[in-house]
Amino acid sequence: MICRKPIGHTPYFDMNKTICRTAALLISGFSYANTVIPDVSPVAQGQHVFINIPQQRLFLYTDGKLTKVYPVAVGRAMTQTNLGEHKIGAKAYNPVWYIPKSIQKERGDGVKTIAAGPDNPLGPVFVRLGDPKLGLGIHGTNAPASVPGVRSHGCVRMKSPDALEFAKTIASGSPASVIYQMAGLNEDADRNLWLAAFRDPYGKNNLDIASLKKVLRNGQKHRVKPSRPRKSMLYSKTAPDRPSA
């Protein structure tokens, strides 16, 4: 869920109330028109994946241009998806799930593997994300209603049709950046600025309010043409978390 509010014609607003208490527009559908694009710098050539944890979205860029956006489920606060820079690894279709010992203990049913098929939580495909020692991947699911969300053990979960499409599209070796941007600013065709603020599932509290206020003040004074989208830094540029083996 996000708080989303038009601010292009508003002379004054309280930032904290805008982010936390304003009347929110709950976006239940999914399209580019209502998706806030994160502030990123994709590679100029080839593919680049960005996963924004608070937004629960995966963005695929090709040759520097956004080509696809997918809803995803990410790791819970206790089993966070590792932030930072990774690479897309090998792909496994119809994978067998070798259940990690930590999850075996959590399940408590003695099951160590789940064969490929409709009951497999990995769905029809598993795409390695980062160092294999991390045990992370981008994969399908047998519970499509769980996507989007913050509920995995660290992997990035997609609806199975999306996972298959993504796996067939993405090239192994492509860079994949797991980011944490709690807010975004977009401009619609009518030149209204829209602020979207996302929940903070990992308690990072890294929203840069001062930079956001500055961007909004500039947006009020100088209208930006739709053909020249605004890029703004709405979060603190702190060093990403180091993946743990």
UniProtKB/TrEMBL annotation:
Domain L,D-TPase catalytic: 47-179
Region (Disordered): 218-245
Keywords: Cell shape, Cell wall biogenesis/degradation, Glycosyltransferase, Hydrolase, Peptidoglycan synthesis, Transferase
List of catalytic residues: 139, 155
GO BP terms, alphabetized: cell wall organization; peptidoglycan-protein cross-linking; regulation of cell shape
GO cellular component: extracellular region
Pfam family, any one: YkuD
Biased composition (Basic residues): 218-231
GO molecular function: glycosyltransferase activity; peptidoglycan L,D-transpeptidase activity
Pathway where this protein functions: Cell wall biogenesis; peptidoglycan biosynthesis
Name of this chain's protein: Protein erfK/srfK
